[in-house]
Amino acid sequence: MSAARRGALPAALVAAALAGLLPGAARAACEDATTEPGLAACYAEKVARVEAELDKVWQAARRRIDAVGGADGPVLAQHALIAQRAWEEYRLAECVDGVRAHYGGTAAGQQYEGECLILTAQTRTRQLVWRYRVPRELAPITYGEAPL
């Protein structure tokens, strides 16, 4: 996701409460957070890590696409970029819409958006690896701890 797109989301929402997605010690530390800023700080690293994995895979996919020769190369590159931009718009709309559905004085909206950002990024990462046959050595990814 581009920095401009990430900037469109409020920072506290992007770094939402993701207690069910973090392992042991990290989850316990986040459960001890009692304020929205505390939750945001606690989970910001998880969102950033998953997005970094996605960005790595997207760059590897672009290198593979750019290596396609002949008349098909530029067309494939253009279509891939259109698809990625459309996915970014979808992700933003999907995750922000879910937040609005969960408002009500609790951190539920933040938790929904954080989980949405993580799960959609992990799903898109897997799609790119599969679609463009990105070798793991070009884009080593961990997919985080969240089950899909």
From TrEMBL:
Domain Lysozyme inhibitor LprI-like N-terminal intervals: 30-128
Signal sequence range: 1-28
Keyword check for Signal: yes
UniProt keywords, alphabetically: Signal
Pfam families noted in UniProt: LprI
InterPro entries: LprI-like_N, TAT_signal
Protein name (database record): Lysozyme inhibitor LprI-like N-terminal domain-containing protein
Species: Paralimibaculum aggregatum
Lineage: Bacteria, Pseudomonadati, Pseudomonadota, Alphaproteobacteria, Rhodobacterales
